[in-house]
Amino acid sequence: MNIHDVAKKSGLSVVTVSRVLNNSPSVREGNRQKVLSAMEELNYSPNSAARSLVRGKTGVIGMSITNFNDSFYDRVIRVVNRKLAEQGYFLALSIAENEEEGVNFLFQKDRVDGIILLSPLEEKEYVEELKRRNIPFVLLDNQFRHEDVPSVVVDNYLGGYEATRHLIGLGHTKIAYIGGPSVFLSVAERKRGYLQALDEAGLAPFGTDSCGFTVSGGYEVAKRWAREDKLPTAFFCGDDFIALGLVQALREEGIRVPHDISVVGFDDQQFVGEFYPRLTTVRQPEAQMGSIGVELLMKLINGEVLPPAETKLAPQLLVRESTASVRLT
Amino acid sequence: MNIHDVAKKSGLSVVTVSRVLNNSPSVREGNRQKVLSAMEELNYSPNSAARSLVRGKTGVIGMSITNFNDSFYDRVIRVVNRKLAEQGYFLALSIAENEEEGVNFLFQKDRVDGIILLSPLEEKEYVEELKRRNIPFVLLDNQFRHEDVPSVVVDNYLGGYEATRHLIGLGHTKIAYIGGPSVFLSVAERKRGYLQALDEAGLAPFGTDSCGFTVSGGYEVAKRWAREDKLPTAFFCGDDFIALGLVQALREEGIRVPHDISVVGFDDQQFVGEFYPRLTTVRQPEAQMGSIGVELLMKLINGEVLPPAETKLAPQLLVRESTASVRLT
DNA sequence: ATGAAAGCGCTAACAG
DNA sequence: CTGTTAGCGCTTTCAT
């Protein structure tokens, strides 16, 4: 069932059929209809391998992800999917679990027209490999700076800064920071923002700690601090899960949020938003990140001049119910 | 940079190069080495569009998903990814959001060698379309029965039955069921199991209700029931999120779980497992579902005889800390 | 063990 | 506006 069958059936040549396939204007309306109905009858659809071969393009954009059980990733992926579809591209997701298999597959010029790396784990290796293979690609939420590679990141420093400013503005002076695993640049950046805000306000950090990006991590830290009777009046957490665990633990200790202690999270995880008190948090601009990423990649593919390598996006503080003015005791 | 360049560089013909590419034994070792090093030098990798075209296969399996912010999906996808890689196939994920765009793309015989539909939303349409296009495919966690289509589902009836039996075994007689949206067959099946278990024990259902698969859904139901002073001694929830919301609400009402009321969830959501009391829940056999699904698809692709259309897997009750013997008052 | 030739299904270049 | 010819990069007969 190929283009020749359609040609035969419609009484026209394969070239005309191809023209109809590609919406060429130079086909007489009558003939176009003939071709269309022949296709219909034959239940024909063009072979994409053949098209890719001759055109040198696949119409597919690959995206490598490490994890999807997370609102941030979820939102970015959905936006990318939509934007790509608008441009006539198809998104193929690949889980980077088995470093060898999956990504190497995607990393083939003829498999995809371009690649989006979202929070890549083995960032440097991937970047090098992709450059070597000469495949257009962009980085989203990456950790390091790379020359000549367009990337879109969130200004985590600013996020930490604003979260802390918010707390300071509420009169808090004893503010602690609980971050995630130190391998992440974002963790360090958020902390840097926190320290800067405090410094500007002439305050000393109350204390910092870290744990995994999990509810139980936050829970344990809070329990430990409570046990040691070392509690601030406000916590800035590097992640919503941590914040949620913290709130749970504090509640068990008879400490109310935000009445006794204020808590700020990070990421605006969907799920976490269903708990009371609704968490004040920092929302990352996923939609922007996704659409700018797609735009950059499209430019790269079309050979346009590339803009400055790194685009840094401002996150947004969402003030909700877990923060309040410090209690005057 | 194609096979001809390699041939020229190695001083052999394209056919020999092709043979090396395909591990044909009939190549003299010396020549194989020549070819290999030529490939290396040229940084050559074969064009997959050309291969697909001539072979009529792509080496790609498509999987259509609707949502990934969920442990059940996450686990199934990861297993499928691994199993497929073992077989030399690559998994391409596609979000079924924009029904038109995405899936229709995957639904092309020459794009993928086979398709896995995970909890498809527009199940019947997809099945029909895929049959029409004659693409090998399997259904995972589907809602309806289809002739001639291999599918793997979980025995939700059994899950509901066992969860309820567990509660009955703990001496509970006032047991309620809170299910999810009624469009899902799984919701009805879990309820059917619940009713059956009660019936066998000579008990009447205390009451049933339903809400979205969300924490807030469960929270609101519990608040409502508490307000109406209509509380059982045990809840069986059709979903962990609902169960979690329920526990939160009960706690706010001063009711302790499991001391005053026992709660059973469903799905063993990762995240939910981090809360105390750790939820007694029903775990779906994601690993089995994934690997059986892949096996079936492989058989289909290889033209083997298809086994009985539907494989029904038994879920597993995980007894943890949210259920206890009924209090004797 | 190796190679020449044909062809997978499609599009692009060039005629007419 | 339409068709003839060539070729994308690879694998597969079929000889040798």
User: What share of the residues of chain A lie within helices?
Assistant: 40-55%
- Mean residue pLDDT of chain A: 92
How many distinct helices of chain A? 12
- Globally, the shape of chain A reads elongated
Main-sheet strand order of chain A equals: 2-1-3-4-5-11
CATH class of the largest domain in chain A, please?
A: Alpha Beta
Which chain pair has the greatest contact? Answer: A-B, 48 and 48 residues
Assembly category: homodimer
- Our Rg estimate of chain A from Cα atoms comes to 26 Å
What is the H-and-E element order of chain A?
Answer: HHHHEHEHEHEEHEHEHEHEEHEE
Number of extended strands of chain A? 12
Notes on the structure:
The structure is a homodimer of 329-residue chains. Chain A has 329 residues and is an alpha/beta fold. Chain A has three domains: 3-46, 434 Repressor (Amino-terminal Domain) (Orthogonal Bundle), CATH 1.10.260.40; 57-152 and 286-312, Rossmann fold (3-Layer(aba) Sandwich), CATH 3.40.50.2300; 156-284, Response regulator (Rossmann fold, 3-Layer(aba) Sandwich). The first copy, chain A, has helices at residues 3-10, 14-21, 29-42, 48-55, 71-86, 101-106, 123-133, 156-169, 185-200, 215-227, 240-252, 286-301, and strands at residues 60-65, 90-95, 114-118, 137-140, 151-154, 175-179, 207-210, 234-237, 262-264, 281-283, 310-313, 316-318. Chain A has a six-stranded parallel sheet with strand order 2-1-3-4-5-11. In chain A, strands 7-6-8-9 form a four-stranded parallel sheet, sandwiched between helices. In chain A, strand 8, helix 11 (240-252) and strand 9 (262-264) form a beta-alpha-beta unit. In chain A, helix 5 crosses helix 12 (286-301). The radius of gyration of chain A is 26 Å and the shape is elongated. The mean pLDDT of chain A is 92. Chains A and B meet through helix 4, helix 5, strand 2, helix 6 and helix 10 of A and helix 4, helix 5, strand 2, helix 6 and helix 10 of B. The first copy, chain A, binds a DNA duplex (16 and 16 nucleotides) through helix 2 and helix 4. Chains A, B: InterPro entries: HTH_LacI, LacI/GalR-like_sensor, Lambda_DNA-bd_dom_sf, Peripla_BP_I.
